[in-house]
Structures are given as C-alpha cells and as structure tokens.
Design goal:
Layout lengths: L1 E5 L2 H7 L1 H6 L4 E3 L3 E8 L4 E8 L4 E4 L3 E3 L5 E10 L7 E12 L2 E11 L11 H6 L1 E14 L1 H6 L4 H7 L3 E12 L1
C-alpha cells in the first residue's frame, strides 16, 4: 500500500515536466489538497484518490474560469484488472464523483484499453480514445444552472443563450462500446 498527499498544487505541477508542458498557458494558482492511494490486491491493483481544488484558482481558456471561492472536489476509486486478452487491460471504475459548487457528476463502469506497443506518443484525449476497445459506463449528473456554474464554465454560455436553461437539471446516460 502506498499513500501520498499533497497540499501545494503549484509545487506539484512544477515537479512534473509533463504537467508543466500540458498546463502551459493555463492559470493554476493557490492551494489544493490531494491524496492518492495504491493498493495491490490478489486480483487487481486498486487506485483511489481525491482532490479538493476549492482554494485553487484555475483558468483553462473558455473551458474553465474557477475562482478560489468556488467549491470543487474530485474523488475516484478504480481497479486495474489483469488482462482478459493479451493486448488489453480492464479498468473497473467503482466510484467517480466530481463536484463543482452545488453540481455533482457521478460515474461507474469499466473500460478496456488496448494500448499500443509504445506509450510514448500517448498524450491527447483522441489518442487515449483510440485505445478504447470496449466500455460500459453509467454517468449521472445533477447540475445547478445558476450564476456560479455560468461564471465557472464559460463554454456553456451559448447553450444558456439558445435554450434559456436555469435551475437544476438531472442527466443520466449509459455508454457502451464493443469492438
């Protein structure tokens, strides 16, 4: 069992050349708390973690403009299971929860990835999705479309203007992919 905790987001980012490169041009400041725990079990490796970004200021272009007064937390537990086939690994998502203000998104399910022989070129979302061979995910969201969400997620503004969405919305979706 390995457990790590971090409280200085800027310092953590500065220690990783990959994170520094990926976050270049985005604003990341203030404190955050994070914990990661990796446990080896007989049939899987369990990875669990949580991040509290409430005190952080995050600016990612038009996607995210989070000020330090906006509550934001992410928690996840997943199992990395032995390959059922030689070329694929299965990730069992037991728990995922992301909170932004009064809005929350939860997910459970699994994905099976067939990574290329070399992972050196894997870095974009598209490249990761290309490795996806099978999946079954269930996602549920309760979104509070108020001033806080509008201010924090500016990319949603065209939707708000076009559809006049306001107040709470519940969404549920099941995703399946089989090759």
């Amino acid at each position: 069992r390995v457990r790590a905790e971090a409280t200085d987001l800027e310092r953590v980012v500065s220690l990783s050349p990959l994170l520094t490169e990926r976050l270049q041009g985005y604003g990341v400041s203030a404190a955050a708390t994070a914990a990661l725990e990796v446990t080896t079990q007989a049939e899987a490796v369990r990875i669990g973690g949580d991040v509290d970004l409430t005190a952080a200021s995050l600016q990612w272009g038009r996607l995210l403009d989070k000020s330090p007064d906006v509550p934001m937390q992410v928690a996840m537990t997943l199992d990395v299971l032995p390959p059922q086939r030689r070329d694929a690994v299965r990730l069992q998502l037991d728990h995922f929860e992301a909170r932004l203000g009064d809005s929350v998104t939860q997910a459970t399910g699994w994905v099976e990835l067939a990574p290329p022989a070399s992972l050196s070129g894997v870095g974009s979302v598209g490249q990761v999705l290309a490795m996806l061979s099978e999946a079954r995910l269930s996602v549920k969201s309760r979104l509070d479309h108020g001033a806080l969400l509008r201010r924090t997620l500016p990319w949603l503004e065209p939707l708000y203007e076009r559809c006049a969405i306001e107040g709470p919305t519940r969404l549920a979706a099941d995703f399946k992919r089989r090759m």
